[in-house]
Amino acid sequence: MLATRWLLLALGLLCAQALGHAEPLPEQAVYVDLCVAEQDANRVWEKVHEPVWEGLRAVPGVGDLRGAVTHGMSQFQLMFRDGATRNDRAAVEAALARVAFAPDVEILSTRVELGQPRGDKLFVGRPACSEHLRRER
Predict the structure, then answer these.
(1) Range of the domain at 37
(2) Of the candidates 6, 80, 100, 120, which lies 20 to 30 Å from 55 by C-alpha distance?
């Protein structure tokens, strides 16, 4: 009985020490992937990327906003000053819902998710249209 108490006490102290020295979680980013019917990158930039960029700039707490356009997709990485949370993700989704696209813009799929920022600050090449392609099959 006494040995069990000592063992539990030792385990408790080890856990407390481990918590005190735990590494902070890496900062998270919010990623936005828009898959669009338009394949001309210049038109994607003009009709999709620019309006979304303006909407995302207004999200509170954004410290760094990066974006990229390729054929059929527009992507964004939002870094928040205090690290991204589920509430930040929800704020990004709300901002996207307020974007007024031109009538000829066809958004095939939208994905908003929390993720770890890449060290090289690049995020292009993420499977932006995978949700749309999965539904097509």
Answers:
(1) 29-136
(2) 120
The pLDDT, as a whole number, for residue 119 is: 62
Helix (H) or strand (E) holding 13: helix 2-20
CATH number of the domain where residue 102 is located? 3.30.70.1430
**For 125, what's the count of Cα atoms within 13 Å in the CB-facing half-sphere?**
5
Q: Which amino acid is at 69?
A: V
In a domain, 36, yes or no: yes
In 3D space, the residue among 85, 80, 73 whose CA is nearest the CA of residue 111 turns out to be 73
Tell whether 3 is covered by a domain: no
Segments of the chain with pLDDT less than 70: 1-27, 118-128, 130-137
Q: How many domains does the chain have?
A: 1
